[in-house]
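Hi team, as promised in this morning's meeting, here are the two structures we talked about. I've kept the exact order from the run log so nobody has to guess. The first one is mostly here for context; it's the second one we should focus on when we meet again. Sequence first, then the predicted structure tokens.
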Amino acid sequence: MPTTDKPDAIALLKADHRKVEELFESFEKARGVERKQTIAKQICTELIVHTIIEEEIFYPACRGAVEDDLLDEGYVEHDGAKVLIAEIMNSEPSEEFYDAKVKVLSEQIEHHVEEEEKRVEGMFSQARKAGLDMDALGEQMALRKQQAMNEFERTGLPAPETRSFTGHDLEEGEPVEDGPVTKMADQRDARPTS
């Protein structure tokens, strides 16, 4: 029986999970704007590539073998993370909320990973029980991952693409420091005294 050193689909995805967890830990310990930005870019890159291989290959292969609700939640969780990834990619560590956005992204990813890796009812467990060919999926995913990494190295990271968030117009409100409460206080302070 030949042995292979190529990880199956679940081993590949779990390795990605562990790598991103380590990067989040490194970010928490990092000091200095440049170091934080470097680590945040690595986190964003890893997560964008990870969502690509899950959404293009793994999730479609799981449809019909894994509970639909679990797959649907996976797509929505990815899209929620992509919103924060876009925010992080388009800002600087010196900006307000930067660290908070990375922290919340870390928490969202932690929850997502837990949902996928649960022992009995998790997505990975259900996919294995269904008898999906994890070796073939792993091979496809490893190839796509390498293609995406090579592409992003040449062209830079693309804006994340959402699949479950559609057509909502969001308006950017005023920054927190100039919010309505502050304005009311400023107006009150500017009133003439009698």
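And here is the second protein, the one for discussion:
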Amino acid sequence: MARTESNMLPLGTTAPHFSLPDTVTDKVLDLADVSGDNGTVVMFICNHCPFVKHVNAEIVQLAKDYKGKKIGFVAISSNDIENYPEDAPDKMKINARENGFLFPYLFDETQEVAKKYDAACTPDFYIFDRQLKLVYRGQLDDSRPGNNIPVSGKDIRNALDALLSNKPVTKEQKPSIGCNIKWKP
């Protein structure tokens, strides 16, 4: 299991625009469609990564806990499906339903969106404020498969709570660690 860290896009970066197909609804959605009035969480995930499987239940719980607070959530998979067919859109749809995703699960076939966000691993998390400026990027929490630390989502929750309270989000942020994005040759 490869361990790749986030690249840590500079704080204050404006959320890069995207327009991608949602594998659940078969509709094309863009950044404006998924943004929340109070903030937006963009997650790069995939189906097969053990690091993502480890946190799927918590990201669903996060969406449940913060959707009513007008935080938008979106997940994007950018993996090369030729070499990783388990991450193909038809399987993304199944995965989203099996895990009870309450957010769109978009497919980035060209991998251009992952490149714009400087995404490096799955899972990789980004939180943008009301003006779509980056206030957090990095890990969900300290839990990893096999380290016996419970999955809590504390780093994302702390950032979202600060954002919702109009307080500064701490600049001390740890990179996420997961499987590398499976880039096309």
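Starting points for discussion:
Helices lie at 31-34, 50-67, 89-99, 112-117, 154-164.
The radius of gyration is 15 Å.
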